[in-house]
Every structure is written in C-alpha cells, then in structure tokens.
Amino acid sequence: MRLPPLERPRRFIFLLLDRFTMMAFASAVEPLRLANQVSGQKLYDWKLASEDGQDVTCSNGVRMRVDMGLSEVTRDDTVMVCGGIDVAEATTKPILNWLRREARRGAAVAGLCTGAWAVAKAGLLDGKRATIHWENQDSFSEDFEEVKLTKSVFVIDGNRLTTAGGTASIDLMLKLIARDHGEGLANTVADQLIYNSIRTDQDSQRLSIPTRIGVRHPKLAQVIARMEANIEEPISPARLAEEVGMSTRQLERLFRRYLNRSPKRYYMEIRLQKARNLLMQTEMSVINVALACGFASPSHFSKCYRAHYQTTPYRERGTSGGAAEEIEDDSVFDALDLDDEDFE
C-alpha cells in the first residue's frame, strides 16, 4: 500500500523498565515496522529509553540497548511504559516524576503489560478506564481504587492507553494504525503478522470459562462465574445451586463429575489463588489479604493456605506470622460450613 507522504512520522518512546516483558514490547514495535514497510514510507518512528540511558535486561534475560535516558519528549510523542516482573520495584521515583512531567507537557502515555501499574502509580490513570494482565488485576484493584479497571484486551481512554500484555499490544497498535491511516493498512499489517483475528477493546483478555476448564456445561460455567465474582463475600453452595435451578446435591454431582472436586473445594481454590496473588504482588497485610478473600480470621486463612500450598501466607510473604498462624481451631471450619475433605 502506498500512502501520501507525511510531514513527519508519529513517534513512540518505549520506556523499558527493568525485567520488562519481551512479548508485549515486540508486539508493539513490529506492527509499526511493518506499517512503514508496507506503506513505503516512514509513518512511524520510535526510540528506546531507560531510566539511566543504560542497557536494560528483560524478563527472559536478553539485554536491550536503548537510545536515551529520561530525556524531554514532545507533546506529539506517545510514551509506552513496558513493564514486566516486579514492576513496583522497577518503578522508581525518577521514572514517576518523568512520567508526570511529560504527561503535563501533553504527551500521551501508555502502559504495556504491567507498565499500567507504573502509569497508575504516577497518578495518570485516576478516573480513567484501564486494563492490566489478568494475573495482576487483583493487586491492581487494591492499589488503585480510583482507576476504572476492566478485563479488556486493551483500553484507550483519551490520551491514556493500557494493554493486558502479551499479544494484546498487537491489537492496540493495529487500532492506532487504523485510526491514523485507515483499516486497509491495519489489515495489511495484520496479514503480514499472520494475525487473523484482530481483537477490539470490547474483547476480554481471558479465555471463556468453558475453554479454561475444558468443559462446556452452561450451568457449571454460570456457577464458576458467580464464584469468581464473589471472592470477598463467598456465596454458599445452596444459594449457588438455587440460582441455576439445581439442588445442592445436583450441584455437588456436577462438580464431582466434571472437575473431580466439591463446589466448596473449587471455590476455596479460587479464593486461595487470589490470596496468593495479593501476597506476592502487594504490600497488603496478611490480615487484609484474608479479609479480601473472604476468610473470617487469620488462623482460618493460614490453615487453609498451608493445606493447599504447603506453606503459610506469612512464609510466602517472607515475614514472621507470630502466634496467629499456629492456631488450629476447627470450630472456625464448622462455623463456615467447611469440612476436612476440602483441604486434602
């Protein structure tokens, strides 16, 4: 495709945080390169930046050479923050100050993968819609209540852009290419990438429940969706069964048949997975993590966590749990209608 010549290319500044994710970064750069190639002109330009202008190591161990440090950009530039592992540690005060300064000057700011956390930490997503990788959604919600978090593949809210990570960067860049130069060019770029299913900001980043669990049973999927949506205040199996028009015994048989576990145990595993995410990704106290995941007490939470993960939440966090983690009070289990089978 040949397009009319531009006065100057649109420029992207990719800020590479320490241990950034290669996939999310490459998925953003390659559509720009291909847009230039298939159009026959330089529609897009890009520079790589780091905090100190030195090489950066991504999460797979590859070192990347950058073009600049935290230099001044123009209001027409788009800053793309590329995050990855331990994004909170990689997001330093100089980086936050730079992001705030460039945003005040009018530059658009985007967060790729966990880069959205850095953009939110700078206060640039307050009152905005945003997304982040599904594994980081629980901790992000706890850290940034003022951000309207979605489960979309990518989100564009004014001059703030966020992606869920991985190949979601391709979808975002194709959207920007289409907006800049038309659907025809975006589709040609997608063909070059062998990318035959372009997603929009209305698409969810995770597989559907039936696909994830490998079972296509509408009532089972409906119950699991309700479980996932009610972690802090768990719903009883009896109520879940009633909501889908089944008896508690029928619901029990359904879970045993397809998932080889009771509804209680499956629900507990979902809650414990969220708890582990919060412990690993936030600074929330163990007590607050327990409450956020529907546990009535630290001792109850610790016992369930230890049974499932063979360690306590305190040791997972790397702190001393004190006496609370050693309490073994079976009355807590009775009060919450749980049984030993759920923790074998």
Plain-language structure description:
- The strands form three sheets. A six-stranded mixed beta sheet has the order 2-1-5-6-10-9, with helices on both faces.
- A hairpin with a 2-residue loop joins strand 9 and strand 10.
- The chain is of the alpha/beta class and 344 residues long.
- 46% of the residues lie in helices and 11% in strands.
- It contains 16 helices and ten strands.
- It has helices at 22-39, 87-90, 93-104, 115-121, 137-143, 168-181, 183-192, 209-213, 218-229, 237-243, 248-259, 263-281, 286-292, 298-309, 313-317, 330-335; strands spanning 10-16, 44-49, 56-57, 63-64, 78-82, 108-112, 129-130, 148-149, 154-157, 160-163.
- The model is unreliable at 320-344 (pLDDT under 50).
Structural class: alpha/beta
The H/E string reads: EHEEEEHHEHEHEEEHHHHHHHHHHH
Mean pLDDT, all residues: 88
Strand arrangement across the biggest beta sheet: 2-1-5-6-10-9
Number of distinct beta strands: 10
What proportion of the residues is helical, as a percent range?
A: 40-55%
Rg from alpha-carbon coordinates? 23 Å
Report strand %: 5-15%
Show unreliable segments.
Answer: 320-344
Largest beta-sheet details: 6 strands, mixed
What overall geometry do the principal axes of the alpha carbons give?
globular
Query: Helical stretch count?
Result: 16
Q: Ends: how far apart?
A: 61 Å
Oligomer: single chain
